[in-house]
Amino acid sequence: MTRLTRDDLEAARDRLVPDVVADGLRVLFCGINPGLMTAATGHHFARPGNRFWPVLHLSGFTPRLLAPSEQGELPAYGLGITNVVARATARADELTAEEYREGGRLLTEKVNRLRPHWLAVVGVTAYRAAFDDRKAAIGPQDRTIGATRVWVLPNPSGLNAHWTATTMAEEYGRLRAEA
Fold it and tell me: Pfam families this protein is in (predicted)?
């Protein structure tokens, strides 16, 4: 992969990154919003140190470790990726409460249209903000969107240090067993 400069990353600010989706997926993973590396490359969870791809493999969702550039293979495994908020930022704390609420509304419309079996939101804080559910915890939720069940997973960002790749893979694996 070409090394991106600070200017390359800054030029990706506010850029939109296309979802990786299909109708009737087993699991639609939902990040908070694209980071600048994701927006610059067009590949979800692209920042080195983000543990999404290794955890997806360790949990058994994929038969091998996929690189972010191989995200197009996910629908063949019944998996997809979207975000609560579409616009790219350097940090999630740059998003407003209104963006989260609107993102939750748009995500609900998307889920109703695509009808995945599970919506897996990666990040309890994002889930709480998008769906105004202050008491949500990691794991399956009571909420459904149409027939789609909802599971909140730990955020795979390297900043989420109290979850290791192993403990995240265990939680992701609990979802895989249900999906």
Answer: UDG (PF03167)
What are the structural domain ranges in the chain?
A: 17-178
- Catalytic choice (44, 50, 83, 155): 44
Alpha helix segments (H runs only) across 65-164: 97-114, 124-131
Residue 83 annotated in active site = no
- Retrieve residue 73's tokens: 């293979």
The count of residues in the chain is 179
List strands edge to edge, sheet with 118-122. 79-83, 27-31, 118-122, 148-153, 139-145
Tens of pLDDT, residue by residue, the chain (179 residues):
568 889 989 899 989 999 999 999 999 999 999 999 999 999 999 998 899 999 999 999 999 999 999 999 999 999 999 999 999 999 989 999 999 999 999 999 999 999 999 999 999 999 999 999 999 999 999 999 999 999 999 999 877 778 999 999 999 999 999 99
**CATH number given to 17-178:** 3.40.470.10
For helices 124-131 and 97-114, give the axis angle rounded to 10 degrees. 90
Report which DSSP code applies to 134. T
- The residue annotated as part of the active site, out of 33, 50, 83, 155, is 33
162 is catalytic: no
